[in-house]
Amino acid sequence: MKKIAFISLGILSFFGALGLIEVYLRVGEIEPPLWTTIDSTVGIVNIPNRPILYLSESYYLGATNTFGYFGAARSRGKRPGTYRFVLLGNSFVSGINVDEKYYFGRLMETALEEHWKKPVEVLNFGFGRFDLSDIYCYYKKVVNGFDYDCAVFFVDTSDFAESYYKNMGPYCVVKPDSIAIVDDYKYGGKYRLYDNTRFITQNSSLFRLVFKCEGLIATQETGHIILDKLYWKNPADKRMAGTEKGFNETTKMILRQLAKDPRNIIVYKYGVPSDIDRFIRSTGISVYSLEPCLNALQQEGIDPYFWKATKTRGHWNHAAHKAIGMYLAGQLSSRFGDDILQPAVRK
Amino acid sequence: MPFRQLRVFMLFNSFVFFIFLGIVVPVYCVLPKKWRMIHLLISSYLFYGYWDWRFCLLLAFSTLIDFFIGIYLYKADGPKLRKILVSISLFCNLGVLGFFKYFNFFADSMSVMCNRFNIHLDFLHVNVLLPVGVSFYTFQALSYTISVYRKDIKPVRSLIDFSVFIAFFPQLVAGPMERIGHLLPQLQKRALPTQGQVIHAATFICTGLFRKVMIGDTAGRIVDHLFAQPKYYSSPELLMGLLLFSVQIYMDFSGYSFIAKGTAKFFGVDLMDNFAQPYFSPNITEFWRRWHISLSTWMRDFIYISLGGNRKGNFRANVNLWVTMLLAGLWHGAQWKFVFWGALHAIYITVHRMMLTGKKKPERYPLRSLKNRSTHWLKVMGTFMLVLIAWLLFRVENLDSLVLFVNKMAVWEGSPYTLRIVMICAVFIGITLFFDWVDKNRRRIFDAVPPYMRVGICVAMFCATFAYMFSSTPMPFVYFQF
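^ inputs. structure came back:
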């Protein structure tokens, strides 16, 4: 009996200590709970007004806004006379590697406002780990609910292949002349389990830690992490294989669909192979490339992907954001220079 | 997500170290007594060689020089010969340290000076890797030779015993710098750990790992970003960076010392305490008695006292103090910022000494009355502020960053997240002070908390720490670079 009491005390202490660690991780924002959730129709979305302290190649202290995207909260409808851009893409576009005031979208907004002398709004709908199919679903289900004048899709070769990290969410299916978005994930057991445990998994720092570990185990990095340089396999081989599936029919159809709306434009985050570029241009959509801008930076001796603190290459750094913001402002101001004074081309 | 980088060293906060420990400790326990020292020696060299086996040669060189000089010193009669012998040891040890750690510092400084006169000495710069822990084991070896020279101790007769003293892996790469009189007799017992030692070992490793990984590293990840490019961050963020650095450097190093202490206990060895709640010091002199104790006592015994200490009047004592503090600064790294950091601490201590002159001795129980207690805590906060200012010099990457930092403090540039920043700082400082309080009262707490409860708490800490270790790239210990 005494032994059972002691063991119970041990178990209670274990959970008590875990509770204190949870408080420490959460209040100290060491491992803040996830700022995303999985919606039953939209798939993965940001939780509105969620504080974020994100450490990757850089440090970011911020929060999602009332509508769940990053940056100043702008409502769905826009004020008359305001020109509004929406930016879509993956983590490069969401830009939570730099503070809002250094974000290329914000710099672009300021530059365009100065150029046009009229209010401009740039809304950041970038989302980490999104491929083109995810971007398209998000665009259809979330971004289309906002009033805008121009949607800028940032893509590169890796976005045309299916993302290696596939989330629970809607996906695209090719129909003879169109594309359908299927959201049958909500009937799956995985989603049901998620939905039932949502409160705890979404609000617990310790659970986030566990999910991170699970993610690493899923990508088969365990041996590498545990055995370090004694491990004999290179984990890079497997991971790279996932992004080389190619430019398939779904991708082509998505691009054709995007081209139907004259408000949409494509920006290459970097150059794409010439055959893909030819196809994209053949759809009639306007295309810009950041390649000249990033090349110019590199020629100045600035690596747009290098982060000083971690000494690693990753997303665009502060210098790159500044250059891209200015470059895009220049490109877009010349494109919309005349149209901007009249109402934009409508759907 | 970037790929995890391969770890260069066998870090205490890596899984591979725990696998290594999981093999070395049981083997040590099952081996016959006479083989245990050899086992420890091989394990220590494997531990060091995991990084780069060639640096084991350097470690062996340092060991052999001091071993043989120790024996000859004991045999030598004439003071002249003894001086020559100790000079050889100093030359070899400091030569190794000087070449690997300071050669480029002096060469570059000279090159910058000569460039003004159009003389180019850039060719003097040599691309060499700094062997990890070289400052620690060199100083440990030197302490032995100097002690034999001073006839404080007798030389060690067994090369294996001496080699283990220098290379004992729990304290090889970042101390504590042990004295031979304390460490070697314990090693020579080749004892198995007692049950109490095993329990203490697990507790020390658990708390040390938590200190290092969950407090030191988590603070460090923020600090690194803020100090790498301060121009992009607001004043509250930079201030948070400085406060978190004070947490990082302490928890990182004390965490390492705890793990070292815990690991050594598995071999029946009690290492010295390297920290004694330094941020609770009511004055700067006291701070140095509590911070990195093994280095400060080394500096006191082998530099300050060798120069004459307090014996030759006030002025000379201050000169000795300055020399000691500047060298202590330089020991931390071959950069001018460390020298300035040492100089700033020398200023603090000199001023503190001047303030003490003519004052009567402090009360024995200063915390009895409320007035004394509040004065004491004010002093503690004042000392912490001084230490914090010095940490700024220690951490900034260059003069431009320092100027930028000071400017941002002078011309306050707010942040929309100031309240969150304050909260983050409060949590980190709060947990640091809590762990210090636990450490100070560890014996009392250890007795008061039932064993099952201790196990429950330790397992929870281990689980959380291992999960964090698994999910994030490990950060090397700050003091490894020294």
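Chain B touches chain A through 50 residues (CB under 8 Å). Chain B has 18 helices and no strands.
thumbs up if we can close this ticket
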